[in-house]
């Protein structure tokens, strides 16, 4: 994994976390928290979709997987938090 790949991964995770925070409307964790949730969600989403045999190509595909992963992770955190 090159330095560019790491930066792109962090960028996608950050955008995914922000989008997940916007989608959940108020049940997010603040901007910094949403970015961290997005990065973790990108890992979770990529892992889960690979288990299902679905692969994302390109920036948009990876972003979609990361947003879905971030939404699932946000839901799990909200469930655990209550």
Description:
This protein is an all-alpha fold and 82 residues long. It has helices at 3-24, 30-51, 58-81. It has one domain (3-81). The chain contains 3 helices and no strands. α1 (3-24) crosses α2 (30-51) and α1 (3-24) crosses α3 (58-81). The longest helix is centred in the C-terminal third of the chain and has 24 residues, at 58-81. The termini are far apart.
Helix content: over 70%
Q: What is the domain tally?
A: 1
Residue-averaged pLDDT: 85
Q: Largest sheet at a glance? A: none
Structural class: mainly alpha
Proportion of β residues? under 5%
Distance between the termini: 38 Å
The shape is globular
Helix-strand string: HHH
| Strand segment count | 0
Point out poorly predicted stretches: none
The rounded Rg comes to 12 Å
Number of helices: 3
**What's the quaternary structure here?**
single chain
What tags apply to this protein structure?
globular; 0% strand; single chain; 82 residues; 3 helices; mainly alpha
Summarize the structure in short.
This protein is mainly α and 82 residues long. The chain contains 3 helices and no strands. Helix 2 packs across helix 3.
SSE topology:
Blueprint: H1 3-24, H2 30-51, H3 58-81
Helix pairs in contact: 1-2, 1-3, 2-3
């Amino acid at each position: 994994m090159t330095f560019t790949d790491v930066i792109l991964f962090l960028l996608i995770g950050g955008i995914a976390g922000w989008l997940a925070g916007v989608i959940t409307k108020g049940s997010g964790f603040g901007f910094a928290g949403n970015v961290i949730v997005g990065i973790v969600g990108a890992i979770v989403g990529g892992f889960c979709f690979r288990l299902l045999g679905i692969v994302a190509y390109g920036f948009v595909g990876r972003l979609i997987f990361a947003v879905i992963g971030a939404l699932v992770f946000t839901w799990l955190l909200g469930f655990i938090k209550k």
